[in-house]
Amino acid sequence: MRGYSGLLYSEGMGRPRKKIQEADSRFRVLIVEDDALLASSLADLFLTNDMMPVIASNIPRAIERLIKEHFDGIVLDLRLPEGDGEELIPFIRSEGALNQKVPIFIASGFFNPGVLKRVESQVSGVFFKPFNPEAILEKFRSLKAATKLAA
Q1: What residue ranges in the chain does DSSP mark as E strands?
Q2: How far is the C-alpha of 19 from the C-alpha of 77, rounded, in Å?
Q3: What would the pLDDT profile of 28-78 be if each residue is shown by its tens digit?
């Protein structure tokens, strides 16, 4: 558990608010994933590339973070406890939402052509598990570079 254990403050790990504020200037990625090993691996990958990952293991925790915080990108699993990741997309894209225009990348082992057809126009990409973490990292590196150019 190298480096990312402190990022689980969204899961009630009691990290001080100061830590969150210090990292606000970094490229922020919300990882909505219930598989703790995968979420931690992605968090570690983002951390080592100067990005600030935040993990939410279910829909209610993701909504809590999305209401209060801005993110530069989102990795979203489709099958989650207490709800389906597909149901979170309209919430994120709703008028006036803090993260309305943030790129969303689906990362799921669940392949359903109907679901993919419904969400394809609302997401920036889809990765099927097991996937190469470097592929997701490359997408987020590109987003980070584009964000710096736009600033």
Answers
A1: 27-32, 51-56, 73-76, 79-80, 83-84, 104-108, 125-128
A2: 26
A3: 999 999 999 999 999 999 999 999 999 999 999 999 999 999 999 999 999
Query: Whose CA is closest to 139, among 99, 86, 103?
Result: 103
Output the CA torsion 56→58→63→65 (10° steps): -10
Residue numbers of the domain that contains 90: 5-150
Burial group, residue 41, by CB count within 10 angstroms (0-12, 13-18, 19+): middle
CATH of the domain at 106: 3.40.50.2300
Q: Determine the Cα–Cα distance for residues 43 and 36; give it in Å rounded to an integer.
A: 10
Domain count of the fold of the chain? 1
Q: Which amino acid is at 108?
A: S
pLDDT tens digit string along 103-132?
Answer: 999 998 877 788 888 888 899 999 988 888
